[in-house]
Amino acid sequence: MKSLDKEEQKSKKNGKETKQSPVFTGNFESDLKKVKDLLGENSDILFRKFRLNNTKLKAALFYLDGLSDKELIDKFLLSSLMKPFSETDKEQIKQDGLKDFLKNNVLSIGEIKESDEPEKAVIEILNGSAALIIESVPEVLVLGIKKPKTRDLQEPISEPLVRGPRIGFTENIKDNTAILRNQGQNEDLFFLKKSVGERAKKQTVIAYINGIANQDLVDEIVRRIDKIKIDFLPESGYIEQLIEDNFLSPFPQIQSTERPDRVMGALMEGRVAILLDGTPYVLIAPVTLSMLLQSPEDYYERWIPATLVRLLRFLAAFITLYGPSLYISFISFHPGLIPTKLAISIAGSREGVPFPTLLEAMLMEIAIEILREAGLRLPKPIGPAIGIVGGLIIGEAAVSAGIVSRIMVIVVALTAISSFAMPQYSLGTSLRILRFISMLAASIYGLYGVVLFTLLFLSHLVRLYSFGVPYISPWTPLRMKDLKDFIVRGPMFLMKSRPVLLQTKEPRRKG
């Protein structure tokens, strides 16, 4: 064996000598020290040193307590490695080499990889794999024995349905890819793995249907994920913020969901999904505004009731955005547009209220937002009760004290209920933010301010894109084929084409 240490090899690049990163050499004590130095004094890293079978060769096994399958290691892996070689085995070792013999005849592990770099081996150990160091072998065998702690499959909390599958994603990315595979046998469902994070690396998977998804879209998403430079990604929301088109927009440009059926439906349309280990929320790109107002349940019901429910959602979005601002503009600037009897009733209810309409509306809206946030943060058994009781008490107390009018309580309550009708929580949050801006515009110019706000609002939507797809398509540009699944959900037999703006490889659906 040559005594030349690979670690001391040098390569010339751009006329300068650069030292190579440390590598394994086959020197047992040296390789062992490299791994131990990188791992440091970690109490959850377990180390087992032993003699390989009945030979004098030394071997060591590194694995992580809590993530690695200790039962598999104790009962099968170590017993196989310490079992004496027969004469036939020794002859086979001379022919194939020790490393290949162990891989093909001894190690009954489905996933075996080789690594000659200590840093990569340590990353695999910290991810739950085991690393086997063998004397005279210049590579480490990485054994896939990860057994992470996972929770049972449950119904998605943030996207409940009356009719539909009762299964949601979990925090384990392998479970999530298996769930997508289980949606139906599809040999064209591709998973592209990436590692993200500079200090704590996590696995992300880019999922798409080969033969449907536009390859330029897949390449663009891969490019943006490759450009992510951050210490740690605890949740997919980090990826969403780092790869979106316009960070100044209040609207989400990537859809997040816990529902596998929603993800599979998007993949079949030609979209791309992004999964991150450690979170049940999967990202879908590109997204349009109409997608955020749709629910998977729209396709599980007949087209007439599904269309009615979808129309109600669009109406709820309008009320969420414009309810208080229209009230402010009518009361403060255009009372003549209100029917006489209604105007008298409103004036009577506002008698004695010391605040202008804008301040009155702001006080109630802020109170509702605080109650909503408090209901989310409190423990589940008392959170909903506090939200309901708090709203009733504050509303009644404010009216009794003459701080706000009864009609204002009705307007704010209707607006809050409408915001709860949004299928996507992120869209409801965006509309709530814009609602305050529309209220300010209405308090300054009345209906003219509302119209001006609407023009600015629509101009922003027209200029907003999600991975090259117009955000308000199929309105702009107008695509008649895509209108069958826009506000009206057309009958199933008419929905033969995939969205035109996605420029899929296969524009028409099969069947």
Automatic annotation (TrEMBL):
Q: Where is this region: Disordered?
A: 1-24
Chief place where the protein resides: membrane
Transmembrane domains' residue ranges: 272-294, 314-333, 403-421, 433-458
Q: Which residues form a coiled coil?
A: none
The question of whether Ubl conjugation is a record keyword is answered with: no
InterPro entries in the cross-refs? Spore_Ger, UPF0353/GerABKA_families
Annotated Gene Ontology cellular components are:
plasma membrane
Per UniProt, the keywords (alphabetical) are: Membrane, Transmembrane, Transmembrane helix
Q: A GO biological process this protein is involved in?
A: spore germination
Q: Where is the composition biased (Basic and acidic residues)?
A: 1-19
* Transmembrane keyword on record: yes
Which branch of life, at top level?
A: Bacteria
The record's Pfam families line, in alphabetical order, gives: GerA (PF03323)
What membrane topology does the annotation report for this chain? Multi-pass membrane protein
**Protein name, please?**
Spore germination protein
| Organism (species) | Mesobacillus zeae
